[in-house]
């Protein structure tokens, strides 16, 4: 198992945002977490990345326990995240943003190859290298944030609502790129409110409601589940 | 104003601007990364001057080496301040304010205990002679500050825009969480920012030692000026701070020459108020996302 989230609870101040959540991710999978606003999806990803720490439970990545490590150690271990709302560095150029994604790397040669790989997925980034990231459109910023995360050549890629605020066409484009990145052998955890998109891409899914996992299973099972249909797929 | 007085005042403005800029960039950088203001920054400047007093005036080292010695010495003080004050109080602006205000007082008292109060240290001018510009005589010791500041500011610009570690500082100032997700250690970046802040304030104090009254309180007025510079410049903007430093250098020097030093500070504050009214984010400030 690549990632094993075991029974974690996370508090903000005294209030718990997620309770006893367990998630298992095998190498090569796309696993999705779906749920409505405030369900705890972002909190879960932030905790995997080390921006928050669980009060109970454990997180294992490969053979390493990571739940008390700082974010930079977790990045170094091979986990990259594309945060909610992209969070590109607005006053840095596209090229600088991509360089920041590779902040800890020393293998310049492999880095340049990965940069070419990023430009293959996102040709627009190649032609916009000198543009300030903050002046790009939402879709372009999403691509940049994904390219930035790929620059660390992560074993596990966490995506927090990549479709948020994008046009339907741009959503499809992002979906296609997620599929491409996956087909290169990258393992992905995809958080989405757009359950239709997420369940179409993923092999496995978890449904979160107010901090608890209420349902989990194969993506196609979830697609056919009556409650999921009613609550997340619009009937 | 006569031509020679005018030229003299212009030259002094550029010198003041150079010092203000060298002192303020560190304050702006540290504020950008930590979102906390270091009130002991003026004392970093003061102690930089005492490094020159000890190594050059007392121990007889060459002036140039004494100035260089101020860099690691005060950088180390910056690192300590980060580790002992800013890191434990991170996110708590009030605690950071109280603690560094306390540090200001401690450093002033310590300097007074060690080197004495009440009289200023005599530091002989290492570079005698004067440059003659359009009939105005400008002491070489002052002239020297300008290329020194250009080198220091150029070096900082290069570091922040061309070196990956320096870019990490900018990333951290723009979005600490996103930076952490890229593997950039926030602790390392706040240390680095405070080390640079210390180094720059220290070297500015060191350069000023021969032409400024060296006393434990010499950092106080300068800190006010540096705060105005940083606010006018746009809080976290290094480029804005440099621009504001030179504008304020001109304002202070001209008003001091024509009227007096107290009026100069008043006009400086009025200038800040004016800028904040016409452009609330400062000259090069960025609206919060
Ligand atoms: N920094 C914070 N401080 C306090 N409470 C928080 C904080 N961040 C999130 N919460 C709370 O934790 C709960 C889970 O929030 P989270 O952001 O993880 O949900 P989400 O599933 O990502 O929602 P969305 O789909 O709107 O992004 C919510 O009740 C939220 O109000
Ligand atoms: Mg969220």
- SS class of chain A: alpha/beta
Helix-residue proportion of chain A: 25-40%
The pLDDT mean of chain A sits at: 96
What characterizes the major β-sheet of chain A?
6 strands, mixed
Give average pLDDT of chain B, whole number.
Answer: 93
How many discrete domains of chain B?
2
Q: What spatial order of strands do you see in the largest sheet of chain A?
A: 6-7-8-3-9-10
Helix content of chain B: over 70%
Largest sheet of chain B: 2 strands, antiparallel
Backbone CA Rg of chain B? 19 Å
Low-confidence stretches of chain A: none
Protein chain pair with the most extensive contact, residues per chain: A-B, 27 and 19 residues
The portion of residues forming beta strands of chain B comes to under 5%
Unreliable stretches of chain B, pLDDT < 50, 5 or more residues? none
SSE topology string of chain A = EEEHEEHEHHHHEHEHEEHH
Q: Which structural class do the helices and strands of chain B define? A: mainly alpha
Q: What is the spatial order of strands in the main beta sheet of chain B?
A: 1-2
Q: How many distinct helices of chain A?
A: 10
């Amino acid at each position: 198992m690549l990632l094993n989230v075991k029974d974690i609870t996370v508090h903000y101040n005294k209030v718990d945002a997620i309770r006893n959540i367990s998630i298992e991710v095998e190498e090569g999978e796309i696993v999705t977490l779906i749920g409505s606003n405030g369900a705890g999806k972002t909190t879960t990803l932030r905790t995997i990345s080390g921006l928050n720490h669980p009060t109970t439970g454990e997180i294992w990545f490969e053979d390493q326990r990571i739940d008390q490590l700082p974010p930079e150690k977790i990045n170094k271990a091979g986990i990259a995240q594309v945060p909610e709302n992209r969070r590109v560095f607005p006053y840095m150029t596209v090229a600088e943003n991509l360089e920041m994604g590779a902040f800890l790397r020393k293998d310049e040669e492999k880095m340049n190859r990965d940069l070419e790989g990023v430009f293959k997925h996102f040709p627009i980034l190649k032609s916009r290298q000198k543009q300030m990231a903050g002046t790009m459109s939402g879709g372009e910023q999403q691509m940049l944030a994904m390219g930035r995360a790929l620059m660390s050549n992560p074993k596990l890629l966490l995506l927090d609502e990549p479709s948020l605020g994008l046009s339907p066409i741009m959503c499809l484009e992002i979906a296609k790129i997620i599929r491409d990145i996956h087909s290169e052998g990258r393992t992905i955890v995809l958080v989405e409110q757009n359950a239709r998109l997420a369940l179409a891409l993923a092999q496995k899914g978890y449904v979160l409601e107010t901090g608890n996992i209420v349902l989990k299973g194969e993506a196609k099972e979830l697609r056919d589940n009556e409650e999921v249909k009613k609550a997340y797929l619009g009937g | 104003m006569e031509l020679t007085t005018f030229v003299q005042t212009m030259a002094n403005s550029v010198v003041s601007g150079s010092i203000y800029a060298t002192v303020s960039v560190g304050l702006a950088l540290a504020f950008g990364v930590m979102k906390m203001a270091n009130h002991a920054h003026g004392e970093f400047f003061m102690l930089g001057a005492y490094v020159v007093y000890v190594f050059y005036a007392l121990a007889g080292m060459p002036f140039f080496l004494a100035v260089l010695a101020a860099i690691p010495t005060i950088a180390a003080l910056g690192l300590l301040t980060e580790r002992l004050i800013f890191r434990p109080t991170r996110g708590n602006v009030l605690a950071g304010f109280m603690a560094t205000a306390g540090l200001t007082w401690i450093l002033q008292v310590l300097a007074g205990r060690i080197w004495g109060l009440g009289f200023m240290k005599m530091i002989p001018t290492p570079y005698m002679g004067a440059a003659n510009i359009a009939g105005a005589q400008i002491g070489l010791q002052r002239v020297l500050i300008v290329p020194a500041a250009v080198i220091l500011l150029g070096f900082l610009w290069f570091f922040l825009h061309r070196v990956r570690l320096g870019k990490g500082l900018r990333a951290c100032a723009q979005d600490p969480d996103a930076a952490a997700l890229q593997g950039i250690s926030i602790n390392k970046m706040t240390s680095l920012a405070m080390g640079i802040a210390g180094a720059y304030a220290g070297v500015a104090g060191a350069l000023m030692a021969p032409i400024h009254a060296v006393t434990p309180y010499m950092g106080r007025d300068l800190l006010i000026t540096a705060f105005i510079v940083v606010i006018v410049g746009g809080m976290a903007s290094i480029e804005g701070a440099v621009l504001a430093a030179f504008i304020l250098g001109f304002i202070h020097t001209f008003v001091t020459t024509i009227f007096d030093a107290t009026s100069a500070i008043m006009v400086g504050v009025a200038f800040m108020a004016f800028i904040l009214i016409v452009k609330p984010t400062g000259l090069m400030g960025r609206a919060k996302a």
